[in-house]
Amino acid sequence: MQTTKAKSELNLFDRVLDLLSLKPLGAIGLVILVILPLVPPFNQEYLIRWLCAAALIAAASVSFDFTAGFINIVNFGYYAIVGLGGYTSAILVDRFGISPWIGIFVGALSAGLLGFFLGIVTLRLRGIFAAVMAWFMGLALMGLATKAVWLTRGSLGLRVERLFDSPSNLPYYYVILAMMLVTYVITKGVTRSDMGLAFKAIGQNMDAARTSGINPVYYRIVNFTLSCTLAGLLGGFYAHYYGILTPEMMHTSKTVEVLAVAYIGGRGSLWGGAVVAFPFIYAMEMVRSSLSNLPGLNLILYGLLLILVMIYYSGGFAAFFQQHFSKPKNIILYYLVNGKKTA
């Protein structure tokens, strides 16, 4: 009752932030991301392409962290699920002439259904075994995309209709930014609910959660299905943004990139990976373009960064940020970081 009264006293700004599961600083960051590509020098096409790629990885890290950070299942086949959403949408658009916008949502549905059936089969297993099974599933999907040349054109690549006729990347940026926000709002909303408490209990100690009356298999399947659905949604965008799909986009190295962003950002935080993705992807693009004669260097850097984070700051960027802004030394900054406190 006290919580209800406190919420009723929130002003309109706080109500909107609460609805979107955002702190004031998060809202400011979102506004900056909205106006950034309109301001020189960020209005150049190659920088907007970077923003699109970063927003895609940011959204993927949120969806990935929803499973890894809460029910303690690392989905090593994550980007294969992204690829499934992309291929489903692309094939439907190419073969049946449906709208790419509809194809994206059908792709999300197909990914969610696969996640549901995979969850029934594998999520009775303990964490490491479930993670290995997810990896095997990813390898199987990649192999299927490679061999089913009659459907996917294999390594030749499947041409995909783009969402917009405009050569500009700006409309794509706002689409993926909206998807990033939707992904965060959905996952954050779920984790703030009673179901989110069950997820956390399962992730911390599955046996204790079962003893307290929580059904681990049920909640794991719900979590995994939602994560896969969101991955499929992002896969549909990937297909209709880049305009071509190859089986290589389902490779485990793509999942490692998302994993690195999620863990460096802060496992279990959701927002940490979304924040880290933008400078992280930019830095990796600079390294890739400067040292193009050293293939695979990005994977080495991902590994080194993960090792350093796990050794020196296992909570990642999110834990570091919250630790240093947990006390109201500056009341304005404290409000921006933590939000308005109500009795």
Low-confidence stretches: 1-7
User: What is the approximate shape?
Assistant: globular
How many strand units?
2
Described by strand count, sense and barrel closure, the largest sheet is:
2 strands, antiparallel
Distance between the termini: 12 Å
Average per-residue pLDDT, rounded, comes to 87
Sheet-strand content, in percent, reads under 5%
N to C succession of SSEs: HHHHHHHHEHHHHEHHHHH
Strand order of the largest sheet: 1-2
Structural category: mainly alpha
Radius of gyration: 20 Å
Helical proportion, percent range? over 70%
Count of alpha/pi helices = 17
List keywords for this structure.
two-stranded antiparallel sheet, 2 strands, 343 residues, disordered N terminus, 17 helices, mainly alpha, 1% strand
Helices, strands, pairings?
Elements: H1 2-8, H2 12-19, H3 24-35, H4 45-68, H5 78-96, H6 100-122, H7 127-147, H8 149-152, E1 158-159, H9 170-191, H10 194-204, H11 206-211, H12 216-242, E2 244-245, H13 252-266, H14 271-290, H15 297-312, H16 316-324, H17 331-338
Helix pairs in contact: 4-9, 4-12, 4-13, 4-14, 5-6, 5-7, 5-12, 6-12, 9-12, 10-12, 13-14, 13-15, 13-16
What does this structure look like?
By secondary structure, the protein is mostly helical. The chain has a domain at 42-278. The chain contains 17 helices and two strands. A two-stranded antiparallel ribbon has the order 1-2. The longest helix has 27 residues, at 216-242. The chain is globular. Residues 1-7 have low confidence and may be disordered.
What's the short version?
Helix content is about 75%, strand content about 0%. By secondary structure, the chain is mostly helical. The longest helix has 27 residues, at about 215-240.
